[in-house]
Automatic annotation (TrEMBL):
GO terms for cellular component: plasma membrane. This is XK-related protein. It comes from Molossus molossus (Pallas' mastiff bat). InterPro entries: XK-rel, XK-related_scramblase. The keyword Cell membrane applies. It is a multi-pass membrane protein.
């Protein structure tokens, strides 16, 4: 095996281990947070955290189970029987099973002296599903829980050490999930180079800096108006759900599960940008950014104009300016990334000789994650058109 390939496989294996460890650490932090709330007699807060954790877990099990049922027959030859898989998902262990399956496949590929094309493609297939599930778990559980913990801290006027642990792990996990998802999209398109270290750092930072003001605005509104935050979320969520439906998504294998996907995407859009339809994304991303910015400013203005104040000791005079500076800095880094650090579109040379064309026709028989691949083609329309042109040239070369 070439050293460069072995180094890439080792890097992916390490990232898989980090992903499993981060999931278990965050789960442990959640249970620790709940136990501390129960011991201190804050049963409502503990119930809210458990509710978010439970709803997110159920949604992830449904996604994982539907995808497994829709995968080609015989693809997962080494996995347990259907009844055993159904039991794992019923016990809320399907997401963890996905992690362990991807780790096992990555270890198998790394141990091989010359990995087979099928094993490499199957490892990519599993990692793409895990990346999508990680992104869904981030915005269905981590981000709402982060907002809840911040609202509790603002309302109570004190911050416990276990709350800071939850906040730090949530922020890092959210930004990492966005970066991992973006890198996963690029692995689906050979005409798109992977993100370099500098581009990855900037991408990680601008997502973190743009997310913080949004979470802060929602947390402030939740702390002062806990009875109205549910109505606010439901109203915006319905608008975003209609927008997602209007774009005609086609991600899941059947119409019923497609509505679960649309509901999840609407939840993501409540906090951050997520592209679901083909075409140019700049206009839709700008509309979404202006929409979220206007809504966040409205919530802050509503808080400022009220006579109710949060407990003393909360540096609100610092939080709001820091949130504004964070948004501006994140916006600048986002512009810097897309103007100068975004990997440029590279046109591959047209090679239509019989050997290379036969190789690509052989690759078409390997496992391909069409779910994430479809999202990648929507996000990078130029690469989709270029890929179609290349396949046509290679097919002509074979003929």
């Amino acid at each position: 095996m070439p050293w460069s390939l072995r180094a890439i496989l080792l890097r992916d294996l390490i990232l898989d281990v980090v992903g499993v460890s981060a999931f278990l650490i965050h789960l442990g932090a959640d249970l620790w947070l709940v136990s501390q709330y129960v011991l201190s007699g804050r049963y409502l807060w503990a119930a809210l955290v458990l509710m978010l954790l439970g709803l997110a877990s159920v949604a992830l099990q449904v996604f994982s189970w539907v995808w497994l049922r829709a995968d080609p027959a015989g693809l997962h030859s080494s996995q347990p029987s259907g009844r055993c898989l159904a039991l794992l998902h019923l016990l809320q262990l399907g997401y963890l099973y996905r992690y362990m399956q991807g780790l096992q496949q990555g270890l198998l590929v790394w141990q091989q002296e010359v990995p087979s094309e099928f094993d490499l493609a199957y490892a990519d297939f599993l990692s793409l599903d895990i990346s999508m599930l990680r992104l869904f778990e981030t915005f269905l559980e981590k981000t709402p829980q982060l907002t809840l913990v911040l609202a509790i801290m603002l309302q109570s006027g004190q911050a416990e050490y276990y709350q800071w642990v939850s906040i730090c792990t949530s922020f890092v996990g959210i930004s990492w999930a966005l970066l991992d998802y973006h890198r996963a999209l690029r692995t689906c398109l050979p005409s798109k180079p992977i993100l370099g270290l500098g581009s990855s750092v900037i991408y990680f930072l601008w997502n973190l800096l743009l997310l913080w003001p949004r979470v802060l605005a929602v947390a402030l509104f939740s702390a002062l108006f806990p009875c109205y935050v549910a109505l606010h979320f439901l109203g915006l969520w319905l608008v975003l759900l209609f927008w997602v439906w209007f774009q005609g998504t086609d991600f899941m294998p059947d119409p019923r599960s497609e509505w679960l996907y649309r509901a999840t995407v609407a939840t993501i859009l409540y906090f951050s940008w997520f592209n679901v339809a083909e075409g140019r994304t700049r206009g839709r991303a700008t509309i979404h950014l202006v929409f979220l910015l206007s809504d966040s400013i409205l919530m802050v203005v509503t808080w400022v104009t009220q006579s109710a104040w949060l407990p003393r000791g909360i540096p609100l005079q610092m939080l709001l300016p820091v949130g504004g500076i964070s948004f501006l800095l994140g916006l600048v880094l986002r512009l810097v990334y897309y103007c100068w650090l975004h990997p440029s579109y590279r046109r591959e040379p047209a090679q239509v000789d019989g050997t290379r064309a036969l190789y690509f026709l052989e690759c078409s028989q390997l496992p391909q994650n069409r779910r994430t691949g479809h999202l990648a083609q929507n996000f990078f329309p130029k690469s989709r058109d270029e890929a179609a042109l290349q396949w046509e040239r290679r097919a002509n070369g074979v003929l």
